[in-house]
Amino acid sequence: MAFARPARKVFPFFFFVMFATASFAKPHGARTHSPIESCWKKQVPPTGFLHLTYAATSQHLYHSSTPWQTYTNDLTGAIWIRGQSYIMLDTLQAKSGTLYSGKAEYSPAQLLSCDFGDTVPAKITKKDWEEETFESAVYSPAILLDRFHRQRAKRTMSENSSSWMYTLTISKTVVTVSISKSDTLVHSVRMLSAHDLYGDVTAEFHYSDFQHVGGFDVPRHIEISRTNGKRKDVVTISAVDRQEVAPKPFADSVKFNFAPEPANSKPEIVTTQYSDHIYFLDTKQADSRSLVVKFPSFILVAEAPLTSENGEAVLRAAQNIAPGMPIRYFVFGHHHPWYLGGVRPFVHRGVTVLSTALDTAYIRYLANAPRTLEPDSLQLDPKPVRFEVLNDSMTISDGDYRMKLYVIGNKSHHTEDYTIYYFPKEEMLFEDDLCWLPLASKPAKASIRQAGLYNAVKELGLVTKTVVQSWPLQEYGVRSTFPFADLEATIDLK
Fold first, then answer.
1. Which residues are registered as beta bridge partners of 70?
2. Would you list the DSSP string of 309-373?
3. Whole-model pTM?
4. Among 75, 77, 82, 390, whose Cα sits 20 to 30 Å from the Cα of 287?
């Protein structure tokens, strides 16, 4: 805290300081350390390891029943870390109480990692290795800070009065390190990256409760905010010491090679006509099916998987079915990304989104999310999202042809917003992912989701001959089109 001092004459002393500084403070050959170098010297051991024992709670988004729900993992473990490498041994406790072990070894030459319960190291791409540079910041800023120091990162101009700011782009992620002017230590890290569904997303790491151990300053409390604040993690370092060697979690016989990066191919759409009014668009890369319904004067599209790029491809394929005919509606069976991830191109085209009230705020978030790192059509030309709210049911019709939408919600035993589509003329039902009838083996007793769909159809009195499913198409060896009678047969199996 700054205290006011009485004014006094300082000129003679001021000139003395100026003279002394010029004449004596910087003798020939002396070097002034930059803040990043001074910080590196205080937090990154060039030899040996900082040995940290920790406990962590980690939130994760998942295929939840409503948007933005999270589940929490509790982890304990130890990490041996220095400037360019770490060894990690950790344990995850499941809700059932079962303990699962994991291990990892990171260095400039490799990343060996066995996730919880796995016995074979995961396949690691060069991108995975790059991203581990900043993911290690969960436990310590040491590896990240070492990289900033080695690459001679430059200070950014947008620094605040209490910190020096440095920025690097690592694997397309913009990483900013904040070094406090009060103690020359890393107190926070901010990462900005592109997410297929959420657009520009930030992760922020805040370090506190520093302990001086073995000549180095180690933060013992780390709070992490991910996905623009939708997820929160906390790491507590319970013990710190300095060790010259670290354990070897993998045998010398385990060889490491980088796996090839996934091919970045454009979406491949296969169009199939089902009836005079119904078409299917199968997106190969997403293993997912969209539905196009051609009415006499407009088109409805249902489901657009995972990304804006896929959504653009689905939109183009739908327009090719009926050139010049407007797409009036976009609808999705539930809020998971295989069905909603490609919504933004439809918003850009002014298409009305049919949604339950439960999902409207979520769709606004997706539609309004900035995408400065990987711009799509809606980022380059923003448009407001247009809604019609689905309640229990809705009929779409233009003349004699009709389509019925039914919100079965938690009767699906999957999500609270679940919507199915029924076509009276074809006696066909289209749904997203509730049925798992195997291709090659005898069907098993219906799962709770499968039974939920069957019971909903019966309650609604829908005369149904055929069920068509959006996902999966091939990956899991289940049928995507089957007679309703085959679904019915699984209900009474023992």
1. 61
2. HHHHHHHHHHHHHSTT--EEEEE-SSSSHHHHTT-HHHHHTTPEEEEEGGGHHHHHHHHH---SS
3. 0.87
4. 390
